[in-house]
Amino acid sequence: MTPAPPAVPNILTIDVEDWYHLSGEQIRGHGTLRPDILARQLDRLLGLLARHDCRATFFCLGGSLGNSPELVRQIAAAGHEIGTHGWGHQSIARLGLPAFREDLLRSVKWLQDLLGRPVLGYRAPAFSVTRDQLDGFCEICLEAGLAYDSSIFPIRGRRYGIPAMPTAPYVIHDAGGRRLVEIPLSTVEWRGRRYPVAGGGYWRILPAWAIGRIITRLNHAGCPMVTYLHPYEFDSQRLSATMAAGWSLRSLKHQLKQNLNRRSMYAKLDAILSVYRFAPAEEYLRDPGRFPPHGPGAGLL
Ligand SMILES: [Zn+2]
What residues have their beta carbon closer than 5 A to ion ligand 1? Predict the structure, then answer.
């Protein structure tokens, strides 16, 4: 892989959630928390990042970690930024803005009480904010004290995405000087279409050299690569949806899909971090030249 231009740091973000709990909820309507498994996954990922002296943003889900404050403290103690992934992992499109507001404020209060410092960033479950909701959504983010959001995939996707939105970080909302920055998830254009190359199936299937080329291409255009990865993608053991939700065709399909090439993720991220510089979102935003004249969040950062 060719080294990226050093002027553009990339942004490494991790959505921290309990795969077993969410898979149970998704497949049969209820799930069981497995903090022991989440701890195993986190240990492996945190170890990999520590070896590269790389810090990241961890968007923590209240419904997964509310009973495991030690896991959030462990991530923070390793020097990473803690952002919020909300509380319940329901789609904002389906929740509607009033219920989203409750969910977000609950999660921000939980993290701020736990860590004793402001939470600056949010990642919506499954990038589920819609275009019609954007104004109200941004107002609620500012009300919660956030400086940035990272929930918009500027694509026309089957399940998510707001097409034709900017592909590099920008100020999305300015309410009389209180500004909210949007850090969109990375996309690349190919033959007139945008592809969501920030994580998920793309990272599981593409080889490290191909992801490296995408990062170089983005960096040459002045854009950071903005990822979304998950601790479960780094589990040393096979993910078992039948353990999470019992035996059914849906469980088996989910299990097959989620394990497909998943074990390559550790070596892939290892290879990418040896070449490219990644930082937490807050570090990217703190650069005084990034959003002149006063930077986002008016004094929060
Ligand atoms: Zn999530």
Answer: 15, 17, 125
